[in-house]
Write a structure and sequence with these properties.
Layout lengths: L2 H10 L1 H4 L2 H28 E7 L4 H12 L6 E9 L5 E9 L2 E7 L2 E15 L4 E11 L4 H18 L2 E2 L1 E5 L2 E4 L4 E2 L12 H13 L2 H6 L5 E7 L6 H12 L2 E4 L9 H9 L5 E5 L9 H6 L12 H9 L7 E7 L17 E4 L5 H11 L5 H14 L5 H10 L4 H6 L8
Parallel strand pairs: 8-12, 11-14, 11-15, 12-13, 13-14
Antiparallel strand pairs: 1-6, 2-3, 4-5, 5-6, 7-10, 8-9
Helix pairs in contact: 4-5, 9-11, 12-13, 12-14
Length: 420
């Protein structure tokens, strides 16, 4: 029976014409549709793999940058503007086109991958003031490694852009954000400390980084604290910057006197600090003084911060404090610090970074004027010391910068150190 004959038969059939046939066809269509839906659900569940990356995750921007580098064939784009600062300070602008919110496709290692970039219009990240977003990757198959490979490539791409540079982070709300442009790494020997001071610190910190198992086997919290104290301008912050470059670490700068900083927020920030980073608490004496002085006049030392001394102590080595952490504190007035703050366990190494010694003066002279002799460096040191015993490295560097190519004029005008 042909199709036309079947249609004529059904048209003349009284049961079909009464509605039973139409009901049957509708039922069959509904069952087919439901079966197709169930089939698609089962196919997605067992034959497809999906990765969702929210904008709050650290890998979110890595992934967007990776997608923009590999590119998709979409005509719907968003622009991501970035800036690059050269060693000379010149800033250049770069525009990267990334897939706009919506659905896109690209091919990776014989996999067709669908990219869905979704923006939640009703939900806003309070800290950044931008809508929440998610990027969802979907591919056919059950191989999770393809996503691990993509994320690892995205991470490596991000690291390449920071290679040879030190990233500075600052605390914004409950999170750490890059501050300014990544800085060119400063050579460790460019900060001339006295004799063995630098060797002692770098040896200790490398031993700490390389032996986590030693701490775990003995049940000792895996964290290390350092205090650099001494007069201003003697190289404390400069040395930490150079040390971070030597270790290939970033620096997280935290101001304990910041308005609105609370105990809970401090503990959260110390726990969520980026991996391979030094947490720097500068001028810690400005945040807290001796508890005896505080008890005499608590209002005078309250300030605008809601941070308490006990909250800081607990964040450094309390039950909930983070491990695998390196903290550097600096102060110009170590005598103002509460003894509980710098006891062993919170501060493991204390080093005084004092005024320049003869050794430092000579080494700095030879570093700025490498063609000069050791004898000339000794003469400069003697001339400088005859003026004053309290000469900071900042003063010496300031003098050298005035006479970059004239070492003799430096010696002739060494008395200008007292004016810097």
């Amino acid at each position: 029976m042909g199709i036309s004959a079947l249609i004529d038969y059904l048209k003349d059939n009284p049961y079909f014409g009464a509605g039973a046939g139409l009901f049957g066809v509708g039922m069959a269509a509904a069952v087919s549709k439901k079966s197709l839906q169930i089939g698609m659900i089962m196919f997605r569940r067992h034959c497809m793999i999906t990765l969702e990356v929210p904008s709050r995750d650290k890998s979110y921007y890595w992934l967007l940058q990776w997608i923009s580098t590999h590119g998709t064939k979409t005509q719907h784009l968003s622009v991501e503007t970035s800036f690059h600062q050269s060693d000379a300070g010149r800033i250049s602008t770069r525009y990267d086109f990334i897939p706009s919110p919506g659905s896109h496709f690209f091919r990776y290692k014989n996999y067709w991958i669908r990219v869905d970039r979704n923006r939640e219009k009703q939900m806003v990240d309070i800290n950044r003031g931008v809508p929440f977003e998610t990027v969802t990757l979907t591919s056919v198959g059950r191989n999770r490694n393809v996503y691990f490979d993509i994320l690892e490539e995205a991470r490596q791409l991000a690291l390449q852009k920071q290679e040879g540079r030190t990233v500075m982070y600052t605390a914004v709300g409950p999170e750490w954000r890059p501050f300014g442009y990544p800085r060119r790494k400063r050579p460790l020997d460019s900060v001339v400390l006295d004799k063995t001071v630098s060797d002692k610190i770098i040896t200790d910190i490398k031993e700490f980084i390389g032996n986590p198992k030693w701490y775990m086997d003995r049940g000792i919290p895996y964290r290390r604290g350092y205090l650099l104290y001494g007069p201003p301008g003697c190289g404390k912050s400069s040395y930490i910057n150079a040390l971070a470059g030597e270790l290939d670490y970033s620096i997280c700068v935290l101001n304990l006197s910041e308005r609105g900083l609370s105990d809970d927020r401090l503990n959260h920030l110390l726990t969520m600090a980026p991996e391979q980073s030094i947490i720097l608490l500068e001028d810690i004496d400005a945040a807290f003084v001796s508890r005896d002085l505080t008890m005499e006049n608590p209002v005078a030392y309250q300030g605008m911060s809601r941070l308490t001394l006990s909250g800081l102590l607990n964040a450094l080595d309390g039950v909930a404090s983070a491990e695998a952490r390196i903290i550097f504190m600096t102060t110009n007035y170590v005598e103002r610090l509460d003894p509980a703050l710098i006891r062993p366990g919170r501060v493991d190494i204390k080093e005084k970074i004092d005024y320049a010694t003869d050794y430092q003066l000579q080494q700095m002279y030879l570093r700025f004027y490498p063609e000069e002799s050791v004898e000339r460096a000794r003469i400069f040191s003697e001339c400088a010391r005859s003026l004053n015993d309290k000469i900071s490295l900042a003063q010496v560097q300031g003098l050298f910068l005035q006479y970059k190519s004239d070492p003799q004029t430096v010696i002739d005008n060494v008395d200008q150190l007292m004016l810097l």
